[in-house]
Amino acid sequence: xxxxxxxxxxxxxxxxxxxxxxERVPVDPITMRVLTGAFRATAQEMAGVLFRMSYSSIIRxxxxxxxxxFDHEGREICESESTPxxxxxxxxxxxxxxxxxxGKIREGDVIIHxxxxxxxxxxxxxxxxxxxxxxxxxxxxSAVTAHVLxxxxxxxxxxxxxxxxxxxxxxYDGLRLYQGGELNEDLxxxxxxxxxxxxxxxxxxxxxxxxxxxxxxxxxxLCARYGVDTVMSSAYDLMDYSERMLRQEIEKLPDGExxxxxxxxxxxxxxxxxxxxxxxxxxxxxxxxxxxxxxSNAEVPTGYNVPYEGSLLVGAYFAIRTIxxxxxxxxxxxxxxxxxxRPVKVIAPKGTxxxxxxPRACFSRFCQVQRVVDNTILALADVLxxxxxxxxxxxxxxxxxxxxxxxxxxxxxxxEVNEGSYGGRFGKDGMDSVDNLMANTxxxxxxxxxxxxxxxxxxxxxxxxxxxxxxxxxxxxIVRRNRFLVDxxxxxxxxxxxxxxxxxxGGWDGLTASLVKNPDGEAPEELPxxxxxxxxxxxxLLQILGPNAAGYGNPLDRPPxxxxxxxxxxxxxxxxxxxxxxxxxxPGTLEVDGPATEKLRAELRGRHADGNGSLIDHVSSNxxxxxxxxxxxxxxxxxxx
Amino acid sequence: MKxxxxxxxxxxxxxxxxxxxxxxxxxxxxxxxxxxxxVATLTGVEELCRMAETEPASVDQVFHGTTIAxxxxxxxxxxxxxxxxxxxxxxxxxxxRHKKPLNFSNYQDLPWQRYPIVRRRYRLTVPERVLAxxxxxxxxxxxxxxxxxxxxxxxxxxxxxxxxxxxFVNPEHETKVRSILEEEFPEAYLSVSxxxxxxxxxxxxxxxxxLNAYVGPKVARxxxxxxxxxxxxxxxxxxxxxxxxxxxxxxQGAVERPVNLLMSGPIAGVVGGIWAGxxxxxxxxxxxxxxxxxxxxxxxxxxxLRMKHLLDTRVGPYQAMIPMVDVDTIGAGGGSVAYVDAGxxxxxxxRSAGADPGPASYDRGGTEPTATDAMVELxxxxxxxxxxxxxxxxxxxxHEAMERLGQKLDMSAEKAAAGALAVxxxxxxxxxxxxxxxxxYDPRDFALVAGGGxxxxxxxxxxxEVGTPKVVVPRYPGIMAAVGLLxxxxxxxxxxxxxxxxxxxxxxxxxxxxxxxxxxALTQLREDGLSEDRMVVERVIDCRYVGQGYELRVNAESxxxxxxxxxxxxxxxxxAHEREYSRRFEENDIQIVNVRVRGVGxxxxxxxxxxxxxxxxxxxxAHHGKREVWFHVDGELKKVECDFYDxxxxxxxxxxxxxxxxxxxxTTIVVPPxxxxxxxxxxxxxIDCTGGEAAGxxxxxxxxxxxxGA
Lengths: 641, 710
Fold this sequence. Notes:
By secondary structure, chain A is of the alpha+beta class.
């Protein structure tokens, strides 16, 4: 009976600890402002140490990491402004390992955790936590998560198609690498000798521990200077402040249920022809908001399930905060902490891809969470037209290039996060070629890639097809070409090869993503978005296209001058200017033909008042001019000799 | 040695003359000539020399800080730039690092996309590709380069950025592109990535090089005119420009790499503020330098400049991978225009009336109300004593302008004026908090040093809001940046990318690298006329553990590179790593990435003569009577009786009770009701901000903090 109750509660709330019970003292406004700044700066400083000191490019260049301070029950005091997928997951990691370690934490411990059924975001995002003691009291933890290159799963780097959670990587469930300041040497060997990239993982682990130590020291210094009661009271008051700010915005929404159109994920990484359903309903009740995913697909037998606490909840927090407290437009600075989590609930029935049963694998969860965020935005399009975007790329193309160097008896692994684009927005075009929604990593410099790995990049620019038309156009995705210079394997988790970003309020749908092996060869091979351990021979090439996001509003309302600018910059074509925007541009002079435009616009308005048309159809009947890529051609020649 | 410091601000050009031999210091100020700022600079130098009764030809050096490069970027009126880049990589500047500035925002702008330095239509690609080892995979298609050069010329571009992949390893293709451009498009300003910034990471390099092209033509014209003008007047060592790292650039260096001048002006202000703070006995300072157009905010703990991390160095929103002192600039100054927008929103700045037409009360054709007009309207700037009496203000014009503004806001002229100042102060407070509190510095440990023509007008209110216990208004606040130019040693830095491992180091080659750079540095210092005992040459090495991606700067010993030298270098690096990241890994090998040589010309410490001591009560001669001035008292805008003083006549030890206004040649110091000020031995006015309402909160907080911490 109790167990069932717990499961039901857990399914909707996660292991929430309830309100903090530490007694608070009043804090004057100036000290409060100082401490708010100090928390924020500490988290940033921790992130700076982690990415500058680390070895793997996924941490160092991409900044796929999160750092922060938390209380003893995992309540978030502050977190670094790194990639949002990490922000808000650490509370669940801490609650996950505390279920085992409560009462056993000592000064000088270093705790390692990555168990996706106990709060982790997914296995390769390893958390390191160091307890913060002040005058004998366990105040909380200084903790970081970072994506490590390899966690010893069945395939190097990425494991979208894993048999179960044991096959996707090694599980670390609240292990103490240091106990009371003393290194557990056997555990150390076990940790690093069971992954393919021992040196890199070691270097990164050192950086993670250094980052935690810095956070711990800063927190202790604050307590010594301002008094522990003042510091902790400020932390809790700030959570209340952030909560208040978010609730005020939720309360402005009319109570009710807002439903997004059904979204479809490509497949589960193994059963290729079966698309997966995502249903999203946003429920507003006073100052509370829930995202209800009931009706979404049943869990899948591969690694394409989503850890409920460490990933799905994080996505929901992100979606609501970003829509209602947009940092660019909301006038106040609202600190990122536990407070912005409190008004948000998520309903995801047990046994669906969003709340799988142990021991289902859940290595690849990013794209599904992105679609939940995108759906949440789309669901609110009618009620918040000035705060939503048209359909986003809402994917990520996360891939692993790897191989084994016989001479050195060593693996090399290169992880790459390929970006998407944003849908058009009220008053603004969508952002091009940028990490979308919950992704916010940095790309790896090409000059870094070519210097360090047996990979050659041969193209990285905006894809050639036009942007999705709208009063405000959608963002453009990228085209990227990487060639293996030695034999190796490629794995990826991606999506969006079948279901394009959705236009709103008359804007057009965008374009899907694609992966093509050897695109210039005699037999180009179209790959699915999720690939596990695909062999690539030395000299073989991969072409990656990111989605073009959708347009916002009727393209016939876009000022002709703006359309002309788009033509000059190749963001759209003369043909699409005519067909979608009803703007006639003289090919010779590239000037707008005013009268012809007026006439055409009137005609098109009569034909389809909603403005909508199909970009995919347009692109296939107006293929863009393809110049042969000179770098690829030279590489092909070199490899065929 | 005789030195002149010239800082060109948006509104005024400030000058300072220092003669080390007879310990003389003179200051001067002249309106900036925005069409060609070198005109005011040259006139100012001549005027200052007349004041000093000396010939320009006897001046050894002119140090110059300029916002010209920064303003071009901020006002977005740089050159029309074209780019020639590797085919397949047209959009490196558009994609940037594919990371958003803000995590939680769907409505943010990506500035590099919304306001591109090089528009996509002018980014032309040419077939070519150099590989990571420097070998050539695709030879340069010279015909394509020629076509691109012609097209950019036809399109009317003024500058061309040449940005090819891996040019920092093998610059041949870029060199070839340069020579084709010189043939086809000789009038273009060229910015070639392997020359401007031969360092890896293509986005950061391309962005820096594009910015260099963007500011290049204007800066080059300016520097040429200025240096030529000074040389005509016989100034011996010619012009020295302050760089963004608070080092020095020669005119030639500045023309080739104007990107290094970005942020030059504001940094001199911080250096001047640190110096002034030290004179007044404060090592921890927040500097607030407010000119006509903008306010620059800096922070120095224990007198040390903070440098930005190389990946955080931006100008406006644009990445510029150059060493840069950490300074923040906001669009708030004495000339900031107060206006109501179409949507009914009230703004003050960032638009500025500058020096020309200037504030309405200048009567030079400006009709829009500015912050200065607000001060005049409230009675805080006496109209008859502006610029030491060299310029009369017309308060009725300020009043008319404020009245027009008030009508739109449905309030009286004086309320509109007070409102405009409140908005301006709030912006400064917010920015100072970003740079102090939000970075974990407690303003209660700092003094606020207020400079610029407009800083002292707002400083006490800003200080009270931010929570700094003291505000220091230096002896010459209006020329803080100019003072900064002379208050620092002359530092040239020479850098070269040089990869090697400490374990297997080619000692001879490293020795050679250093020797060459050291010779360059010494030649430059000799050219500057420094005696040998004033020259210091230092070695710096950027290194990291093998496998890491970011380097740390480590000071290296001079002398021969032997085992002991290497041991010291390794130890210094391990220490630096531990200091930065709290861990060291002595078993790991160390990789050298860049070698640097700093040529330092030691300058005489700038010293102001002590001012005469007086009583607590200022001399009657200094008191210029009482007038009615509008202030907020008990939350209400009221006319109160206010003392006016001539600052030049105040003595050390004089105490002043607010409300008071202290006027001097180039600024006006406002001491609001409830606050006190005192004049120190160096002539600084130190305002105590712990009086009044806000102060009660600060003291309570401090007491509580002490009680809690004990």
